[in-house]
Design goal:
- It is built from one helix and ten strands; from the N terminus they run αββββββββββ.
- By secondary structure, the protein is an alpha+beta fold.
- It has a domain of 94 residues: Cupredoxins -  blue copper proteins (Immunoglobulin-like), CATH 2.60.40.420.
Amino acid sequence: MPHTLHTAPRLAAVALIAIAVIATAAACGSSSSNKATTTIEVATPRPTTPAAPGATGTLTPGGGPAAPGAPITVTTSGTTLAFSPTQITVNAGQQVTVQYNNNSPLPHNIHFFNGKDASAPSLAQTDIATGPNAVHTTTFTAPAAGTYFYHCDVHPTQMTGQLIVK
């Protein structure tokens, strides 16, 4: 009988697994009337660090200013010919670091001008690179208060934005 005592727990475990497999198979049957769909939404919380006086810029549309000295991230994704965000706000005279992430299979860069269009002198630019995940950084001193222009040198009429200096 000792052999039977060791076999019984194993048989019980196998039986429980078999029941679980059968129950799962029944719940996932091919009949469309028995199918249930569950959607789970996961919210990603935004950082809630308060902005310090003289913060360096708006990271995303509607977002708060970045912490002083933090890079401002601008991205391009997929085959969309657009920057995100299309508007960056900084303070006059501030050192501005922009990290441009071309997450697109197309060649792009970001080029800032000291005026309202591309005929103005250049403030700063990144190299033209093809993504995805082509990350380049440029740093410049924000000019006087006003509205300034930026664009992609490869797509100068489609990919544009505004640098707002306060």
